[in-house]
Amino acid sequence: MSETTRSLASRPWSVLRSWDAAVLVGLALVVLVGAAAVDGVGTPRFWRFVILEIIPIALIALPMTLVIITGEIDLSVASVLGLTCTVFGQLWASGVTSLPILVLVCLLLGAVLGAVNGLFVTGFGLPSLAVTIGTLALYRGLASVVLGNRAVADYPPEWTSGAIRAIPRTTVPWAVLVLGALAVVFGVVLHATPIGRGVYAMGNNADAARFSGVAVRRTKFWIFVVTGTMSALAGVFWTLRFASARADTGLGLELAVVAAVLLGGVSIFGGRGGLVGVIAAVGLLATLRNTLQLASVPANTLTVITGSLLIVSVVGPNVAGLIRVRLRRRRSISAPPPSAAG
Asked: How far apart are CA 153 and CA 140, in angstroms?
């Protein structure tokens, strides 16, 4: 295992690199400029809506970070979320009135859907991009089969209000505590365990990782399972937050998730990145989106901005890396040669 891989995986704060700092600075600038230029930005009500938007995206972005660091990708996450919502709604409409049972069924469904992706990628050796494009369409189609054009929206008020209830004496939804706990778990696994070191190693060189004793196929399989499960959890939260289940729920959300992960400094080629930058990028995108919405920016423009940030997130770190390499070369060329001993 390379020194870089060992450093990234074993020291949590080593992921706070220049790109992560740039994302944090960008978030601060959006908040400051938005608060000065747009009425309502920075208020408790504004932050409540930002956090509610962050929660489902961050829930999926946490495992997606591991997926992309291994050199794979999962584009089916929004379809898993949508299918979970429709199953939740259909079960409720069919007479299942126990929330714990509904949540458990949805999480198991998400795990199965993630396992299907993992089986095709690790068992049959198919490229994850092709597999998850296929399951993106398949799972979304199944969601349409489950509910068709119907919407289920008659959930108990205690369920829907409970999902977005604020922490006492604040406007912050309590669900952010669940997100925070999960972020800590993922952070510890990625940056402080042999599993995390294996994730970085297989992203840098899967063959070398395999020869080093990393169970590459098994690890990737379970990462896809976890990704499906977390997408289902996001689907449950989404259903209760909006008090509605439809087949088109979360349509296009995978773009926001991938944009956040890549903007957070995770390399699309694998082997590099961390959760600090990803969480900051999720906050940046959600804050920017809500600020622009308050400024009455059209939805199409928001999509263009998200796509542009996705391109910047892919190109930016590579350009920054090239600049650093050239600067080092110039310094080494301009530095005086060491004097001869004696």
From this structure: 19
